Amino acid sequence: MSLCDESQPFVLTLGDISATEALAARLAALVAAGDIVGLAGELGAGKTTFARAFICARLGKTEVPSPTFTLVQTYEGGGAPIWHFDLYRLQSSEEIYELGVEEAFDTAISLIEWPEKMAGNEPLDWLELRLDPVDGEEARRATLTPYGSRSANLLVRLTAADG
Length: 163
Fold this sequence. Notes:
This protein has 163 residues and is α/β, with parallel strands linked by helices. 28% of the residues lie in helices and 25% in strands.
């Protein structure tokens, strides 16, 4: 990867699941309490795969169930707590407040699947990572878009990690 222009989305191709997991591990090494990562993409795009790899990179081997039915799972250890949200089943964007997002945004690392469900209630500063299938069953295009200066700095550090 190379240094990005923080005013533009950064796009890269992930050739397989291992590449997706490697990106998750690199990002996991850089985040801190207060960082918010939204994982967007269609069903089966790899959002939960990315989240599992991210959480395991921070905590070591651990069970990471999909929070589709519980809506949120929390993880302790490895520094700041991680709150893993799955907003797919929400009916309105205001429902995010019932899940404790304000506390998570202030004190934890937040991973949010289906961030578009926050429409109108998005945090002021967050990094969107959109996964889209490309050629091949496991290949994905990752588009990282920062919303705010903190997430722009995070993206710059992520894209400089290999460079």
